Amino acid sequence: MTIEKTTGGTGAGNAGSTPPSQAQAGVLPTPRLVPFDAPWAWLAAGWRDLWTQPVLSLGYGAAFAAAAAGIALGLAQMEVHALFLALAGGFMLVGPLAAGGLYEVSRRLGLGQSVSFSDMVRAGVASRGQLLFFGGLLTFAFMLWIRVAILLLALFLGSTVLPPPSQFMQLLLFTPSGLGLLIVGSVVGGAIATAIFALSVVAIPMLLDRRIDFVTAALSSVQAVQRNPKPMALWAGLIAVLMGAGFATALVGLVFAFPLIGHATWHAYVDLFGTSDSGG
């Protein structure tokens, strides 16, 4: 197989992608090479989709933000406020799965089709359970993330009973044990996040678009990252900044950031692999 380099822009030509029949047979679709600044084009396309269907998109973002707020409230009631940072990171791990309805909106807009709330809800039915398997993988990663956070808190601070957020931040930044927790937690968390990002960055859109198994989708996602390390590193950074801003604004920013990232992720998939509708 050959790899065609695109010249930029989302949804570039379909040369260099594997036909659906080969993907169904278990052969990995071949990702295209994309330019370093491609993620900015994905965001621009996602922004257009968001404002083409603002009610559906922002409603989806509001639901995601409400779910995050509910979990954050639960952590507050259990007096484990410091785990909110781990929660924010964990939500980025499961975000690709939660954005399935947004991918469907962008897919339909790209085909010039109408889209409704029921279309978003039914997204993924054709995957025949493969999304459930992938969802199990991401849920396991999320639980591992939280367990590691609790373990590191116990190892470095001697307890999982933590002070209020303001005191915890002083402890984290101005004590040896806190700095150790910050450094080791960042390294371990970064390793987990990098692995899950590579496995899932375009895997869910691929499962929604093609009749393939979740292992093929995950390996194809990893291959896309391996062949486009700089653009995908930029994309990971942009996702982290947007989601971080969403959490830093008392979750209000998530109403906009989450659907923007979801729509843009669909365009990232199209740019890298094409779509089954277009023969890519």
> Any idea how many domains?
1
Structural class: mainly alpha
Overall geometric form:
globular
The low-pLDDT segments are: 1-9, 11-25
Terminal residue distance: 13 Å
What is the C-alpha radius of gyration, as a whole number of Å? Answer: 19 Å
Largest sheet descriptor: none
> What integer is the average pLDDT?
81
- Helix proportion of residues, in percent? over 70%
Number of continuous helical runs? 13
**Strand segment count:** 0
As a percent range, the share of strand residues is: under 5%
- SSE series: HHHHHHHHHHHHH
Question: Strands, helices and their partners?
Answer:
Layout: H1 20-24, H2 38-52, H3 54-77, H4 83-98, H5 100-110, H6 117-122, H7 130-157, H8 165-174, H9 176-200, H10 203-209, H11 214-227, H12 229-248, H13 254-273
Helix pairs in contact: 2-3, 2-13, 3-4, 3-13, 4-7, 4-9, 5-13, 7-9, 8-9, 9-11, 10-11, 11-12, 12-13
Walkthrough of the structure:
The longest helix is centred in the middle third of the chain and has 28 residues, at 130-157. The relative contact order is 0.20. It contains 13 helices and no strands. It has one domain. Helices cover 72% and strands 0% of the residues. The chain starts with 19 loop residues before the first helix and ends in a 7-residue tail after the last helix. It has 280 residues and is an all-alpha fold. The protein is globular.
